[in-house]
Amino acid sequence: MNDAWDVMPLGELCDVLDHKRKPITKRDRKAGEYPYYGATGVLDHVAGYLFDEPLVLVGEDGAKWGSGENTAFAVKGKVWVNNHAHVLRPNRDKLLDRWLIYHLNHSDLTVFVSGLTVPKLNQGSLREIPVPVPPLPEQQRIVALLDEAFAGLATAKANAERNLQNAQELFESHLEGVFLEQGEGWVETRLEEVCGFQNGFAFKSKKFTPAGCPILRISNIQNGQIDAANRIVFFNPHDYLENLERYRVTKGDLLIAMSGATTGKLGFITEDLIYYLNQRVGKFEPGQHLNPRYLYYFLSTKVDENLRISAGSAQPNLSTEQIKGLLLPLPSIELQARIVESLEYLEKETQRLTKIYERKLATLEELKKSILHRAFSGEL
Known about the structure:
Blueprint (H helix, E strand, L loop, with lengths): L5 E4 L4 E3 L14 E7 L4 E5 L4 E2 L2 E5 L12 E4 L2 E4 L3 E6 L6 H10 L16 H6 L1 E4 L2 H45 L6 E4 L4 E5 L8 E2 L3 E4 L4 E2 L1 E3 L6 E3 L12 E2 L4 E4 L8 E3 L6 E3 L3 E6 L5 H9 L2 H5 L12 H5 L2 E4 L2 H44 L4
Parallel strand pairs: 3-8, 14-21, 16-20
Antiparallel strand pairs: 1-10, 2-9, 3-4, 5-8, 6-7, 6-9, 11-23, 12-22, 13-17, 14-17, 15-16, 18-21, 19-20, 19-22
Helix pairs in contact: 3-7
């Protein structure tokens, strides 16, 4: 921070208007035209308002307070604010609203947050947050530079996010088109006619052991592969009388999660290891007329539309009958191989572009933090 700048506690620079806040339960809200604000922004629109002036809101609870988390934001006009956001009126003879917002969002405020179960930036701690106070003309100059820089960064970020979404949508559109635009010689058959299916065994959690035979569960199936580092558990085969060989899976097997938040997720085993399936994970056993990768790509188009079955249950879940009864559009085994080759190439290109755009977004975020650091170090 610039040594020539004054530093003052926030409580000496702002009127804290928290006493004017008022929460309204969702049941008691009357719909209207006025924004109803909480810790992170607009939650609803209601029939009345509590404030009618430019103000700065800062999340009290239910927010994030790390550097770059945008816990502070401006409001103006007629608004209602609940008791999860602090309400600040800066002394504008000393402090610009935008300067305060930039500073708070740049700062790591977690050191002022208390509470483990429900983290909270209470009013006493809020008032103690140190705020640099350069002369108003200097604040205005730096804020103008930040506004211009951040407008450019916002445009670049929006473009990168749009390109990322377009790349992913292009692959998904092409993938769906493969199975919709069927050519000559294709047949439609029930999955069970060309592919076996075996779901796992009901291992008892009380018999899990620190080591032994590893069990794959629904949480281990992620993004087309097996996440073996994600909470693998083990069992001793001697604890079970039943022959467990049919529940064993090895490299190359295609698995599917059959319940919970990961319902319909697919994954290939890519390691030279042996696992066993619990009862909510299924294994496909393609016959000679079905390419396993072709089956994987077909099932990938069905995850959201057909496989996330939740009716009558508290969470999504799949039955063996639903899987076996899926209608599978099937060309010759040779054409399946060519389709797989084409899709794998396009998928790799999509992944390459995705990494490029994700790196660009990360770079933009780092640049944003760097600009703010320079601003509050007096280097702009």
